[in-house]
User: What shape does this take?
Amino acid sequence: MLPRTIDWVDGRIVLVDQTALPAIRTVAVDDVDALVDAIRKLVVRGAPALGVAGALGVALAAHRGVDVPAAAERIATARPTAVNLAVGVRRALAALPDGPAAVLAAALAVRDEDVAACHAIGARGAALLTDLCGPGPLRLSTHCNAGALACVEWGTALGVVRSLHSAGRVALVVADETRPLLQGARITAVELAALGIAHRVVVDGAGPSVIARGLVDAVVVGADRVAANGDVANKIGTYPLALAAARAGIPFVVACPESTVDPDTPDGAAITIEDRAEDEVLAGGPAWNPAFDVTPADLVTAIVTETRVWS
Ligand code: MRU
Assistant: This one.
């Protein structure tokens, strides 16, 4: 059983350190500088977990008595692509006129809503995949980590997998290793192993090709931001899976909370793609490290949230 990814314990934010996985290590964050550093270094990562980190970060700033609006701005801009981070910050900041206790209550509500949303997404997504693929055990492909460790618990895309698994309906999960930081190999694989779900890690270049070989029934991934027109930003390497799924005629399903859908971003071209440090690529020379890609809405079979199926 994995601990909660992120929580508020005795006036501090406690995180599962995702840079240490597969080892399970928790860290306590005491101040805003440490939180911003943890967000940038991916100690906490995954759009829903970032939303909770943003909200709890504002609560931490209020608790410490620092300049809360300035702290909120620094936290909200620590990473640019996952919209949940700024959404979480805004939710907690809105309670500031009512004092630190109200800010904390708002942040804890963001945390609790994420748990409820993930369970609803899992159930809705499992029902959708049953409609799309039939009742037999499914072979599913996923990318990056959209599991419990990307949220507070349970997960979005892996929440769908878990709902199917509890009904005995998962034959295999093909998990892309997810270069360069290996969220698939280090995090998704750890979660699936802990849950006893059959899985194989494949190198990113193999993900589309196993789909082309007819070895996958559906793709299910998370999202960092969904634009108003349905374009989906997610970890770099997601788009090739969508292309392969369209070519193979299998569903490409995105599972995310409503907080990931950004009505203020008209389309994928308006989404800021985070460029990370070139040393993460370890190429030994000049590198370019875009961390996300955009899948156009016409390649997405459906977006499943806690309240709707958008197709
Ligand atoms: O750079 P990361 O690890 O934060 O990227 C995370 C992803 O791309 C996830 O797929 C996305 O945030 C959805 S998590 C439920």
User: Anything to note?
Assistant: The CA atoms of residues 1 and 194 lie 7 Å apart. The chain has two domains: 6-113, 123-310. The chain is about 40% helix and 20% strand.
